[in-house]
Design goal:
heterodimer, A: alpha/beta, six-stranded mixed beta sheet, four-stranded antiparallel beta sheet, 10 strands, globular, B: mainly alpha, about 0% strand, binds adenosine-5'-diphosphate, binds magnesium ion
Chain lengths: ~260, ~260
């Protein structure tokens, strides 16, 4: 084994009661690679990410990080493993009770590997990297626009220089221009860190921009995966329908009563 | 048996909920005594719970003391037993009404606020973000609140005791024409240390109940703004009922025959 994948999911299952969300997901993310998982709303993209992060426990299957099995890991080991991860949440999930700069410095302060003033210096620099001036650091999350929140969330995710970064619908809820700015920042930040990235989205423009490889999740399984250049000639009807956003096709929207 | 099935289901649901609650409380308590500690968060919560509850607890206590003196006068004057008024006031306030009324007022103020704050953090993924930043949310959010609750409620009740007795004193001296020195003498003649101590033990227990219920319902809220509203209501109702139940239990333990 020359290079173990950073993330490897094998046959991951997860159900909530009778609702079978993941039915055998297989996915690999290599070192320095950016994989984007696409799929409709409610197909279980966020559930998949939460299983990898350990926020949800899969019912069956294996998840390996750097070749290490993480399903059923002890809480202490899990906390140590989290240092490898950075995550940008869908709604940014900034802590309301902390100022912007404290949000960005949070991971550094908690890890305790650098002194306080150094942590704040790094946080300042990360804010600059996502295009926010030092005056923004003193603001509170409630004073920020949606785009600024995403930027701060990104700065917080990269502050501890993680090896693997997760992005949950990074452009959802933003206007197309701000969405593209965030895409550029994601590409730039992951490249600078040399990190692996796993993103989920239903925004094809965003997927094309940040992905090396695209995988499509449908009915709890990865039904297609391939390099981003091949997504337009996948030969897969489901992928075709999704990337062109057609109402007609094999994918039928399940409208629950 | 079509009648037994739903009854059984409700009963099992109740047992499952009690089990989850005990597990949550146990885990949270164990986080209270294991490092790392967050003294700044504890201090913040102590100010929130103790200092800012002073006005409402004080007002409740003074009116309670006043009405106790007035009502016991109506009763005791029929038997020429007015000298028992001071004893009735001080014993009722320190043993029962001080802890119970302070507990109920703080449950409405603090339990609701905690459930709303933590519930909002749950539905906006801030609790997941804490985990992703290598921070145990029970240790960071729940443990400081429980510690502050256990420490501050006894102090609040001590203040309520003093103000409640003072309320009775005001009515006794200015409305019922007692001699001030005489009223105070009667007050302390009947007071035993155990009367006050049992009230403070109750208060610590109520502080635990209020904070655990507030955090538990917030922590397990789902379904957006509506879910947070429901969590808030449940926190106040369940902690109020538990306060009254435990009040009886602790009274029976201290003074039961
Ligand atoms: N904690 C949970 N409890 C119960 N059901 C859940 C939970 N999280 C997600 N689900 C269900 O899993 C399905 C997939 O959700 P999600 O992963 O959020 O979709 P998306 O692909 O849009 O991110 C939905 O049907 C949702 O109702
Ligand atoms: Mg999602």
């Amino acid at each position: 084994m020359a290079d173990t994948p950073k993330i490897k999911l094998t046959n991951v299952h997860k159900a909530f009661g009778a609702n079978q969300v993941l039915r055998g997901v297989n996915l690999e993310v290599g070192a320095g690679e950016s994989v984007v998982v696409i799929g409709g709303s409610g197909t279980g993209k966020s559930v998949m990410l939460k299983c990898i992060l350990g926020l949800l426990e899969p019912d069956a299957g294996s998840i390996q990080i750097d070749g290490q099995e993480v399903v059923g890991m002890s809480a202490g080991d899990r906390e140590a493993l989290m240092h490898k991860f950075g995550m940008l949440f869908q709604g940014a999930a900034l802590f309301d009770s902390l100022s912007v700069i404290d949000n960005v410095a949070f991971g550094l302060l908690r890890a305790g590997k650098v002194p306080r003033d150094e942590a704040y210096r790094i946080a300042d620099q990360k804010l600059r990297q996502v295009g926010l001036g030092p005056d923004v650091g003193k603001l509170w999350p409630s004073e920020l626009s949606g785009g600024m929140k995403k930027r701060v969330g990104l700065a917080r995710a990269i502050a501890t220089e993680p090896e693997i970064i997760f992005f949950d619908e990074p452009t959802t809820g933003l206007d197309p221009i701000m969405g593209d700015v965030i895409n550029d920042l994601i590409v730039e930040c992951t490249r600078d860190l040399g990190a692996s990235a796993l993103s989920i989205t239903h925004d094809m423009a965003s997927a094309r921009k940040i992905a090396h490889r695209i995988a499509m999740l449908y009915k709890g399984e990865i039904i297609w995966a391939g390099p981003v250049a091949e997504v337009d000639r996948s030969g897969n009807d489901y992928v075709e329908q999704f990337i062109h956003g057609r109402a007609e096709g094999p994918i039928q929207m399940e409208l629950k009563a | 048996m079509p009648i037994l099935a739903p009854i059984g289901r409700v009963f099992l649901g109740f047992l499952a909920m009690t089990g989850r609650l005990c597990q949550f409380a146990g885990a949270s308590v164990s986080h209270c005594v294991r490092p790392p500690f967050f003294p700044r968060l504890v201090t913040h919560q102590m100010i929130e719970i103790g200092y800012y509850s002073l006005p409402v607890v004080g007002l409740t206590a003074i009116f309670t003391g006043m009405v106790l003196a007035l009502q016991s006068y109506t009763g005791f004057s029929r038997f020429n037993a007015e000298s028992a008024i001071a004893a009735v006031v001080v014993l009722s306030v320190t043993r029962e009404l001080g802890p119970v009324l302070a507990g109920l007022m703080v449950a409405g103020r603090i339990g609701a606020a905690m459930a709303a704050e933590i519930g909002t953090m749950r539905v906006t993924e801030q609790i997941d973000a804490l985990t992703a930043l290598s921070t145990n949310p029970q240790k960071y959010l729940v443990a400081p609140r429980i510690l502050a609750g256990i420490m501050m409620l006894p102090l609040l009740v001590l203040v309520a005791d003093i103000i409640g007795v003072f309320g009775g004193f005001l009515i006794g001296v200015y409305k019922l024409d007692f001699n001030a020195v005489n009223y105070l003498k009667l007050t302390f003649e009947f007071l035993e240390p155990l009367d006050v101590i049992s009230g403070l033990v109750k208060a610590a227990m109520f502080g635990f109940i209020i904070t655990v219920m507030g955090c538990y319902h917030g922590y397990h809220s789902d379904g957006g703004a509506q879910g947070v509203g429901k969590a808030t209501t449940n926190a106040v109702v369940s902690s109020s009922v538990l306060i009254l139940a435990f009040n009886y239990l602790i009274t029976a333990l201290f003074f039961g025959v």
